[in-house]
UniProtKB/TrEMBL annotation:
The lineage of its organism: Eukaryota, Metazoa, Chordata, Craniata, Vertebrata. PANTHER family: PROVISIONAL ORTHOLOG OF TUMOR PROTEIN P63 REGULATED 1 LIKE, TUMOR PROTEIN P63-REGULATED GENE 1-LIKE PROTEIN. Residues 77-264 form the HSac2 domain. Belongs to the TPRG1 family. PROSITE patterns: HSAC2. It holds the Pfam family hSac2. Residues 1-47 are annotated as: Disordered. GO terms for cellular component: cytoplasm. This is Tumor protein p63-regulated gene 1-like protein.
Length: 284
C-alpha cells in the first residue's frame, strides 16, 4: 500500500517502507493491529474484568504491637523529654516573690473526695506547695493549685479508711495535707464531685514508682512528707499566722474516706482514666 501526499499542488508518491522486526510502528498501525490480533490468552489473568472483586487489604503483624508494649511505656509521663518539658513549663510560670526557689519536684496521685485518681506534678518551693494537673497529650499546663506553706496545719499519714459499702477501696499509704482545720467542708462541697473548696488534699504513690529508676525518687511519699514537714516548720517561723501553732500537727492514723458506694470511682480507677497513657484504639 502506498501513501500519497499533496505538496504545493503536485502529487508526490512517498516510498513504501517495509516493516522490520523490532522497528516501532505508528500509532495508527498499532491500533489496527490490536483490533486484528488480540492479546495472547496467557496474559488474560493479569487483566481480569473486575480486578477489585473479592479483595480486602491484608493486616500485617507488627513487631511492636500494643500488646507487647511494657506497662511503663504506656504512661506519657515516662516518654523521653516529656517530664523535663513539663517541669520547665511549670517552673517558668511560678512567681519568685510569692513562691521562691523550687526545692524539689514530685510525681503523685491525688485522690479526691469522691475517690477518683488524678495524676499530679507536685512542686515544693520555699513558700508554697503547688499541685499541677499537666496535659501530657497537648504538652501544656491545665491547672495549677497553690497552697502557702504557712497555711498548712495538719498532716494525716496512714491507710485510707472506707465505709463497708464502698466498691473501690484503695490499698497503700496516703498523705492528707490540711490547711484550715477550723473550717470543716460544707455539705455542698462534700457532695460536689468537682468542688475545689475542700481544705485538704490527699496524695498517694503514682503507679510509675516501681517502673522507672530515673523517676522512682520522685514518687517516694515518705521522703516527700519529711521534706514537707521541715519546709512547713520553717515557713511558720518566718511568716507566722495569728492563732496558728509554730509547726504542723502530724497524725499517724487511718484517713477517712466518705465514699459510701463509689461506682464511678470504681470504673475510673480500673481504667486509670486519671492518667495520661496510651489506650490502644480507645485514645488517651
Amino acid at each position: 500500500m502506498q501513501e500519497i501526499r499533496t505538496v504545493c499542488g503536485e502529487m508526490q508518491t512517498l516510498p513504501q517502507y517495509k516493516e522490520e522486526e523490532g522497528e516501532p510502528r505508528s500509532p495508527l498501525q498499532a491500533t489496527n493491529t490490536s483490533k486484528e490480533n488480540p492479546r495472547p490468552a496467557d496474559m488474560s489473568h493479569l487483566y481480569p474484568k473486575e480486578p477489585r472483586l473479592g479483595y480486602s487489604p491484608t493486616c500485617l503483624p507488627l513487631s511492636h504491637s500494643q500488646e507487647n508494649i511494657p506497662g511503663k511505656e504506656k504512661y506519657f509521663i515516662l516518654r523521653n523529654g516529656t517530664l523535663e518539658q513539663a517541669i520547665a513549663d511549670i517552673t517558668s510560670m511560678l512567681s519568685p516573690a510569692e513562691d521562691g526557689e523550687v526545692q524539689s519536684t514530685w510525681i503523685f496521685t491525688e485522690v479526691d473526695h469522691w475517690n477518683n485518681d488524678q495524676e499530679r506534678l507536685v512542686f515544693l518551693t520555699h513558700h508554697s506547695l503547688l499541685l499541677c494537673r499537666y496535659d501530657f497529650v497537648g504538652l501544656c499546663n491545665s491547672h495549677l493549685f497553690r497552697i502557702p506553706l504557712n497555711f498548712i496545719d495538719t498532716l494525716y499519714c496512714g491507710e485510707l479508711h472506707y465505709p463497708n459499702t464502698s466498691l473501690n477501696k484503695k490499698q497503700g499509704q496516703a498523705l492528707r495535707i490540711c490547711w484550715d482545720k477550723l473550717r470543716p467542708p460544707s455539705f455542698l462541697a462534700r457532695w460536689n464531685p468537682w468542688s475545689s473548696e475542700l481544705p485538704y488534699v490527699t496524695l498517694m504513690q503514682h503507679p510509675v514508682a516501681g517502673m522507672e529508676e530515673t523517676v522512682s525518687h520522685m514518687c517516694q511519699l515518705k521522703t516527700f512528707k519529711e521534706q514537707l514537714v521541715e519546709c512547713v516548720r520553717v515557713a511558720h517561723m518566718q511568716k507566722p499566722l495569728p492563732g496558728r501553732a509554730n509547726g504542723p500537727l502530724i497524725l499517724e492514723k487511718p484517713i477517712p474516706m466518705e465514699t459510701y458506694l463509689g461506682l464511678m470511682s470504681f470504673l475510673s480507677s480500673k481504667s486509670e482514666m486519671g492518667y495520661a497513657k496510651s489506650r490502644g484504639i480507645f485514645g488517651f
